[in-house]
Amino acid sequence: MGRITLDKVQKKFGDVEVIPPLDLTVEDGEFVVFVGPSGCGKSTLLRLIAGLEDVTGGEIRIDGKPATDLPPAKRGLAMVFQSYALYPHMSVRKNIAFPMKMAGMDKAEQDRRIAKAAEALNLTDYLDRRPGQLSGGQRQRVAIGRAIVREPAAFLFDEPLSNLDAALRVGMRLEISELHKRLDTTMIYVTHDQVEAMTMADKIVVLRAGHIEQVGSPLELYHAPRNTFVAGFIGSPK
Ligand code: ADP
Ligand code: MG
């Protein structure tokens, strides 16, 4: 499960309306990319869904249940950030186990989930290493592993590859797409990179100044951009 519905979700910081009331549905299992220029509100929107920011107005529902007032830990979503935020003194295994340990999960269940995540991410041979002994791409995979073991209804990624060099980024894009197929779980992926949006998304949401310019598949946006902003950002010239 992992259907997320935003109903007139609005966000103001003080008097500044960063997200005017916005409607959006993310279907269960969909890979949705939020794309748009820097400062258009992509991170804010993701943080509202995650519960890291409170909405100023509107409703968020996850699998049909009201989630607007739930704290992040109760939403059943997992956020993956661009910074790896791994514990340098802990092994990969302990890093991945950490959220489960904090939740007081049974040790056998922890081990089962670690083995499953490590297999999905090709980390099985690296579980006893420390983050400092891993490449950038492997560290990013550990961060994703820590999200996987929570078996979330959806993964939320905020520009997770922006700290990686160009070559590594291409490989990680493919890996995340593969992971999406394997896990069959909803993913919302924020980027300002058109190529990432075009190659990874089932559905692209083009944002501009906090509102949705257009929603569609990569092909729809490419061939039928609604206006010059979308065309300039993603599509072929109109
Ligand atoms: P993006 O991720 O698309 O680059 P953000 O969501 O980070 O954009 O920011 C959208 C707008 O909201 C920007 O103008 C930013 O300055 C503003 N903003 C974001 N967070 C805060 C905050 N905590 N307080 C005030 N303004 C904020
Ligand atoms: Mg951002």
Automatic annotation (TrEMBL):
<dbReference type="GO" id="GO:0055052">
    <property type="term" value="C:ATP-binding cassette (ABC) transporter complex, substrate-binding subunit-containing"/>
</dbReference>
<keyword id="KW-0547">Nucleotide-binding</keyword>
<protein>
    <submittedName>
        <fullName>ABC transporter ATP-binding protein</fullName>
    </submittedName>
</protein>
<dbReference type="GO" id="GO:0016887">
    <property type="term" value="F:ATP hydrolysis activity"/>
</dbReference>
<feature type="domain" description="ABC transporter">
    <location>
        <begin position="4"/>
        <end position="234"/>
    </location>
</feature>
<dbReference type="GO" id="GO:0015423">
    <property type="term" value="F:ABC-type maltose transporter activity"/>
</dbReference>
<comment type="similarity">
    <text>Belongs to the ABC transporter superfamily.</text>
</comment>
<dbReference type="GO" id="GO:0005524">
    <property type="term" value="F:ATP binding"/>
</dbReference>
<keyword id="KW-0813">Transport</keyword>
<keyword id="KW-0067">ATP-binding</keyword>
<dbReference type="GO" id="GO:1990060">
    <property type="term" value="C:maltose transport complex"/>
</dbReference>
